[in-house]
Sequence to fold (157 residues):
Amino acid sequence: MLTSNDLERFIAAQNIAATLVWPGVPTPTVVDAAAALGVAPAQIIKSVLFVADGEPVLVVASGQAKISSKLLADHLGLARRRVRVALGEKVTAVTGYIPGSVPPFGHLQPLATVLEAEVLALTGDIYGGGGDLDALLRLSLAELRRVVGEKTAVLVE
Fold:
Protein backbone atom coordinates (compact mmCIF):
# COMPACT_ATOMS: atom_id res chain seq x y z
CA MET A 1 0.00 0.00 0.00
CA LEU A 2 1.19 3.52 -0.80
CA THR A 3 1.36 6.34 1.74
CA SER A 4 2.12 10.04 1.91
CA ASN A 5 5.83 9.14 1.87
CA ASP A 6 5.39 7.55 -1.57
CA LEU A 7 3.45 10.58 -2.76
CA GLU A 8 6.20 12.91 -1.53
CA ARG A 9 8.78 10.89 -3.47
CA PHE A 10 6.61 11.03 -6.60
CA ILE A 11 6.19 14.80 -6.25
CA ALA A 12 9.96 15.26 -5.92
CA ALA A 13 10.83 12.85 -8.76
CA GLN A 14 8.35 14.49 -11.14
CA ASN A 15 9.26 18.05 -10.07
CA ILE A 16 5.64 18.85 -9.20
CA ALA A 17 4.92 22.18 -7.51
CA ALA A 18 2.90 20.70 -4.65
CA THR A 19 3.35 20.11 -0.95
CA LEU A 20 1.82 17.87 1.64
CA VAL A 21 0.25 19.33 4.76
CA TRP A 22 -0.66 17.55 7.97
CA PRO A 23 -3.48 19.39 9.75
CA GLY A 24 -3.13 17.22 12.85
CA VAL A 25 -6.44 15.35 12.53
CA PRO A 26 -7.75 12.72 10.12
CA THR A 27 -9.39 14.25 7.04
CA PRO A 28 -11.24 11.43 5.26
CA THR A 29 -14.09 13.69 4.07
CA VAL A 30 -14.32 17.06 2.36
CA VAL A 31 -16.00 18.60 5.41
CA ASP A 32 -13.28 17.23 7.71
CA ALA A 33 -10.52 18.52 5.43
CA ALA A 34 -12.02 21.99 5.04
CA ALA A 35 -12.58 22.33 8.79
CA ALA A 36 -9.06 21.16 9.62
CA LEU A 37 -7.51 23.63 7.18
CA GLY A 38 -9.84 26.52 7.87
CA VAL A 39 -10.77 26.83 4.19
CA ALA A 40 -14.04 26.67 2.29
CA PRO A 41 -15.15 23.19 1.22
CA ALA A 42 -14.96 24.48 -2.36
CA GLN A 43 -11.15 24.50 -2.07
CA ILE A 44 -11.10 20.73 -1.51
CA ILE A 45 -10.95 18.37 -4.47
CA LYS A 46 -11.62 14.66 -4.45
CA SER A 47 -10.23 11.87 -6.61
CA VAL A 48 -12.88 9.25 -7.28
CA LEU A 49 -12.06 5.99 -9.03
CA PHE A 50 -14.54 4.52 -11.48
CA VAL A 51 -14.41 1.28 -13.42
CA ALA A 52 -15.50 1.90 -17.00
CA ASP A 53 -15.86 -1.16 -19.19
CA GLY A 54 -13.38 -2.93 -16.93
CA GLU A 55 -10.78 -0.14 -17.02
CA PRO A 56 -9.99 2.31 -14.21
CA VAL A 57 -10.83 5.98 -14.76
CA LEU A 58 -10.06 8.63 -12.15
CA VAL A 59 -12.35 11.63 -11.87
CA VAL A 60 -11.02 14.70 -10.07
CA ALA A 61 -13.93 16.82 -8.91
CA SER A 62 -14.80 19.59 -6.53
CA GLY A 63 -15.14 18.01 -3.13
CA GLN A 64 -18.86 18.64 -2.79
CA ALA A 65 -19.74 17.57 -6.33
CA LYS A 66 -22.02 14.60 -6.86
CA ILE A 67 -20.38 12.89 -9.83
CA SER A 68 -22.82 11.29 -12.23
CA SER A 69 -21.75 7.88 -13.49
CA LYS A 70 -24.38 8.38 -16.21
CA LEU A 71 -22.63 11.52 -17.47
CA LEU A 72 -19.24 9.82 -17.22
CA ALA A 73 -20.56 6.90 -19.29
CA ASP A 74 -21.90 9.34 -21.88
CA HIS A 75 -18.55 11.17 -21.95
CA LEU A 76 -16.70 7.88 -22.46
CA GLY A 77 -19.18 6.64 -25.06
CA LEU A 78 -20.20 3.63 -22.97
CA ALA A 79 -23.47 2.12 -21.89
CA ARG A 80 -24.39 3.43 -18.45
CA ARG A 81 -24.33 -0.04 -16.92
CA ARG A 82 -20.64 -0.33 -17.93
CA VAL A 83 -19.55 2.45 -15.52
CA ARG A 84 -19.55 2.18 -11.74
CA VAL A 85 -17.77 3.70 -8.76
CA ALA A 86 -14.92 1.54 -7.47
CA LEU A 87 -15.16 0.64 -3.82
CA GLY A 88 -12.74 -0.09 -0.97
CA GLU A 89 -10.36 -2.86 -1.94
CA LYS A 90 -10.61 -2.05 -5.66
CA VAL A 91 -9.59 1.56 -4.99
CA THR A 92 -6.55 0.40 -3.02
CA ALA A 93 -5.64 -2.30 -5.55
CA VAL A 94 -5.68 0.17 -8.45
CA THR A 95 -4.38 3.39 -6.88
CA GLY A 96 -2.32 2.02 -4.00
CA TYR A 97 -4.07 4.34 -1.55
CA ILE A 98 -6.92 3.74 0.87
CA PRO A 99 -10.23 5.48 0.14
CA GLY A 100 -10.31 8.95 1.67
CA SER A 101 -6.62 9.52 0.97
CA VAL A 102 -6.39 9.12 -2.82
CA PRO A 103 -4.39 11.91 -4.49
CA PRO A 104 -5.00 13.00 -8.10
CA PHE A 105 -1.65 11.49 -9.21
CA GLY A 106 1.18 9.26 -7.96
CA HIS A 107 -0.75 5.99 -8.16
CA LEU A 108 0.51 2.44 -8.63
CA GLN A 109 -0.14 2.82 -12.35
CA PRO A 110 -0.87 5.76 -14.64
CA LEU A 111 -4.63 6.31 -14.74
CA ALA A 112 -6.88 7.87 -17.35
CA THR A 113 -7.98 11.03 -15.57
CA VAL A 114 -10.91 13.36 -16.22
CA LEU A 115 -11.26 16.74 -14.52
CA GLU A 116 -14.86 17.55 -13.70
CA ALA A 117 -15.60 20.97 -15.24
CA GLU A 118 -16.41 22.67 -11.91
CA VAL A 119 -12.77 22.19 -10.86
CA LEU A 120 -11.73 24.69 -13.52
CA ALA A 121 -13.40 27.50 -11.54
CA LEU A 122 -11.23 26.96 -8.45
CA THR A 123 -8.74 29.67 -7.53
CA GLY A 124 -5.89 29.89 -5.07
CA ASP A 125 -4.55 26.82 -3.33
CA ILE A 126 -6.59 23.67 -3.68
CA TYR A 127 -6.31 20.60 -1.50
CA GLY A 128 -6.82 16.92 -2.22
CA GLY A 129 -5.99 13.50 -0.84
CA GLY A 130 -2.44 13.34 0.47
CA GLY A 131 -1.83 9.61 0.59
CA ASP A 132 -2.81 9.15 4.25
CA LEU A 133 -6.02 10.01 6.09
CA ASP A 134 -4.18 12.72 8.04
CA ALA A 135 -2.33 14.26 5.07
CA LEU A 136 -3.53 16.60 2.34
CA LEU A 137 -1.97 17.63 -0.94
CA ARG A 138 -1.76 21.40 -1.61
CA LEU A 139 -1.28 22.70 -5.15
CA SER A 140 -2.63 25.14 -7.71
CA LEU A 141 -5.21 24.38 -10.37
CA ALA A 142 -2.62 25.16 -13.05
CA GLU A 143 -0.24 22.57 -11.59
CA LEU A 144 -3.01 19.99 -11.27
CA ARG A 145 -3.87 20.48 -14.96
CA ARG A 146 -0.21 20.26 -15.95
CA VAL A 147 0.26 16.96 -14.15
CA VAL A 148 -3.01 15.13 -14.88
CA GLY A 149 -3.79 16.61 -18.27
CA GLU A 150 -6.52 18.72 -19.77
CA LYS A 151 -9.26 16.12 -20.32
CA THR A 152 -12.36 17.80 -18.90
CA ALA A 153 -16.06 16.95 -18.84
CA VAL A 154 -19.26 18.10 -17.20
CA LEU A 155 -19.99 15.21 -14.84
CA VAL A 156 -22.36 16.88 -12.37
CA GLU A 157 -26.08 17.14 -13.15
